[in-house]
Sequence to fold (415 residues):
Amino acid sequence: MEQTKVDEKVLQVRLLGKFSLVYDGKEVTPGRNNASKFTQLLQIVWLQGDKGVYKDELISALYGEEETLNISNSFNNLLYQMRKQMVAAGLPAQSYVKKHKKMFIIDPAVPVWVDALDFKDNYRKGHDTQDPELKFEYFNKAFNLYQGELLPALSTETWVIMESVALRKMYDEVVSWLGEYILSKKEYEEAYHIYGRAAEIYPENDWQVGQIQTLIAKGDYKNALRVYDNTVAYYTTELGLPIPEKLLDVYHKMSAKIDNAPGQIHQIQAEMTQDRRSVEVSEDEGAYDCSYPSFIDAYHILSRNMERTGYSVFMMLCTLVDYEGKMIRNQDKLRARSQALWEAIHDTLRQGDTFTKYSNSQFLILLVGTSQEDCDIIYRRINKRLKEIAGSRADFKYSVVSLAELPAELEDQAR
Fold:
């Protein structure tokens, strides 16, 4: 990856992805705590560049609602401690922050380069130009500078949140434009890298859709499905959220475009056998856990075959609740209960039954050859197993619908 070259006698300040200072080719660490107030003072001033910061704004950001008897003296002492720590770290004996009229600015005695300011500068130049080649040059520099979210160790500080939101909005524009521009030139590897890097930094921002679209354009459907499945697992397991519409849309487009390339029957058989073995190893003898899109496909297949086979099919929705029947708010507790419910469903149901995790709090089950009364028995069996795994207070509620009745219900809703 391209690195920005900076003169060694310039203090290099990196704020994106992590905080670091480099001077004269060596990394320096003032003080023992990167979250100290004097460090934050420097970071705030550095982020403002030539604009400077009013003293009141600095005090508000640094002290907030803290009660300090003499706030002005505390602030002056902070400036003194900051300069002392910078010199102790091996940096030149300078002020680093100077008062100019009513503003605090970067001390010009020690030139400073700040990655976030360089990012903003390249973003603005790219945003303002209409020349695609120039835009690419500036946006590509901005993209390489953005190594992660602003000061992640201070992500709960109000001043960091405000700056981070603005920077992230710029980064989103950079990634969107770069991805589309590079993809239009059919440079698939580079486009995949752009979207992949963005997905590493902001996995909840659906950049994986760009990765999938790139792989589809390249004709690599197998890896497109792999990225899709990994992303679905991230949303349902890590975030405990339903699958975003963007992902479902790209899945349907991908499914419509997949034309199996000509192959030998033995090769196809080997691939299917390998996939089957992976299912058998991971699922043992329990019910079949599949991705949400695969669950939808199974639902449609069973719906179409009900009349021919005569089997009844019910879909059960299981929703985790606390012992009072309310939604579980604590996310750590919810994740643990979700895993316990997964095990309870998997252990209790038959191999012929299919289920999927819809979100951290909900699972969907397809029950073949059961009756309405059987569904209540199944619920009790799953709940019994859940309590064995997670304790007597673990509970979930359920609702069921017959696949035979569902089309009529949807038709009534459409009227």
User: Anything to note?
Assistant: The chain has a mean pLDDT of 85. The chain is about 55% helix and 15% strand.
